[in-house]
């Protein structure tokens, strides 16, 4: 948790809000979700800990890239890449390595 608090001030890193414990429904694409939202591909994780981050209303990068209604010109693609690289450069400057950087763990706002 100390590491997440250390990087809360960067524009391209999702802010860590805290930890919660209880019964959560976990969706493989969306993370922790409310019981009322969906019942597909849910893993029950009763009495587990969940890390709570700021809400990213754009969803995951995977979802954004697979949305056929979104046209990604080269400028947009380059800007997305630059924002990701900027966040990683910041983390690496603090001697923090991101273990699992994939499109499902990258969020858009």
Fold blueprint:
Blueprint lengths: L1 H5 L9 E12 L3 E3 L8 E12 L7 H6 L7 H20 L16
Antiparallel strand pairs: 1-2, 1-3
Describe this structure in words.
This protein has a three-stranded antiparallel sheet, with no helix packed on it. It is α+β, with helices and mostly antiparallel strands. It has helices spanning 2-6, 61-66, 74-93, and strands at 16-27, 31-33, 42-53. The chain is built from three helices and three strands. The protein has one domain. A hairpin with a 3-residue loop joins β1 (16-27) and β2 (31-33). The two termini are 23 Å apart.
Please state how the strands of the largest beta sheet are arranged side by side.
2-1-3
Largest sheet: 3 strands, antiparallel
Mean pLDDT: 75
Alpha-carbon distance between the two ends:
23 Å
Extended strand count: 3
Rounded to an integer in angstroms, the radius of gyration calculated over CA atoms is 15 Å
Name the helix and strand elements from N-terminus to C-terminus, one letter apiece: HEEEHH
| Overall helicity | 25-40%
The protein's oligomeric status is: single chain
Number of helices: 3
Net shape: globular
Strand residues, percent:
15-25%
**Low-confidence regions:** 35-42
The number of distinct structural domains comes to 1
Class inferred from helices and paired strands: alpha+beta
